[in-house]
Amino acid sequence: xxxxxxxxxxxxxIQVVRGVxxxxxxxxxxxxxxxxxxxxxxxxxxxxxxxxxxxxVTEGEAFYEGEDLLKLSEKQFRKLRGKEIAxxxxxxxxxxxxxxxxxxxxxESVRVHRTLSRxxxxxxxxxxxxxxxxxxxxxxxxxxxxxxxxxxCQRAAIxxxxxxxxxxxxxDEPTSALDVTIQKQVIDTMLELRxxxxxxxxxxxxxxxxxxxxxxxxxxxxxxxxxxxxxxEQVLYHPKHPYTRELICxxxxxxxxxxxxxxxxxxxxxxxxxxHGV
Length: 278
Hints:
Elements: E1 2-11, E2 14-24, E3 29-33, H1 40-47, E4 55-64, E5 67-68, H2 74-80, E6 85-88, H3 92-95, H4 102-110, H5 118-131, H6 137-141, H7 150-161, E7 168-172, H8 180-197, E8 200-205, H9 208-214, E9 217-222, E10 225-231, H10 232-237, H11 242-249, H12 254-277
Parallel strand pairs: 3-8, 3-9, 6-7, 7-8
Antiparallel strand pairs: 1-2, 1-4, 4-5, 9-10
């Protein structure tokens, strides 16, 4: 479905993405992981045609169904974006219009590519929200973004992104700044997309746990380069690059944390006993 080859992106004279290449098959989830500033989001925005005006693709190809995305004009990309390819941003409170209710945002998204009445749009949105297990779809449609929790806002943004049935979804740090229980809800929503609609997903994140929960294939980016690529099992359990091993070692492990917690509790108890003795 998507084949990226030797992608390089620069901001002015600063090269931030260097020779990145990977492919995505129909229904596949590809995770790109790396620390903040490694070029993940820039890479994704370049593929979605949403680079900032001072960003520039300096080299490479990105074929979607045989058509090079990097050579499309803005007019050509507007026909493709939202209909065939969609993007979920990192902060839904910034990507959703704060003055529009969710229902209006959904309607404005679908009417770019289809002729639909507002009533038809609302009915369709309710069915989609229900399919993605969002509770009380009518309340969500009647709410402004600031009236929803961060997790609900992000899940609504995901539903809006797939309103026109895109086959490929780009997700830019979709679980950032969410607590772990809400992260799981967002992850479950995206996995439901693949299950019900066969949507292919490219997700970038600095959170190895999120990538481990979702991806079939994993790429590791460091300083703009893809330093490791393979199946989830290969990368997570048999990493080859030292940077990948460092990322995995940095993941907190509950069995290592628990003794520290117990020691802290024991220390607190001893302190309390000492104070009672005084």
